[in-house]
Amino acid sequence: MAAKALAQLQCHNDMVTAAAVAWKDKYEQMEQLYNELVEKTGDLAEENDQLLIKCEQLEVDESMQNDMLAVKIGDLAEENEKLESELMSYRTSFEASPMKDTATI
Q1: Coil, strand or helix at 97
Q2: Phi, psi (5° rounding) for residue 97?
Q3: I need a labelling partner for 9 at 20 to 30 A (CA). Which of 27, 37, 61, 76 fits?
Q4: Among the residues of 1-105, which ranges form H helices?
Q5: pLDDT for res 102
Q6: Calpha distance 10→12 (Å, rounded)
Q7: What does pTM read for this prediction?
Q8: Residue 78's Cα: distance from chain center in Å?
C-alpha cells in the first residue's frame, strides 16, 4: 500500500512539475511578447513625434506660401488696376483724337 501511495504521489508530483514547466514556458513567452510590444510602442511613439514635427513644419511652410501668394495676388491686382486705368486713358485719348475722325473719312 505504501508503494501504491508513493507511486500516486510521484505521478501527482510529475503532473504538477509538468504543469509548472508549462506555465513557466507560457509566462516566458508572454514576457517576450510584452517586451516586443513595449519596444514597438516606443518605436511608434518616436515615429509619431517625428511625423508631428514634420506636419507642423509643413503647416508653417503652407502658411508662409499662402501669405506670399496673397501678397503676389495683391500686387497683381494693383498692377491690373493700373493697366486698366491706363487702357481707359488711352481709349479716352484715342476717342477724342482728331486722327480717329480722319481715319474714318
Answers
A1: coil
A2: -70, 140
A3: 27
A4: 2-96, 98-104
A5: 55
A6: 5
A7: 0.56
A8: 38
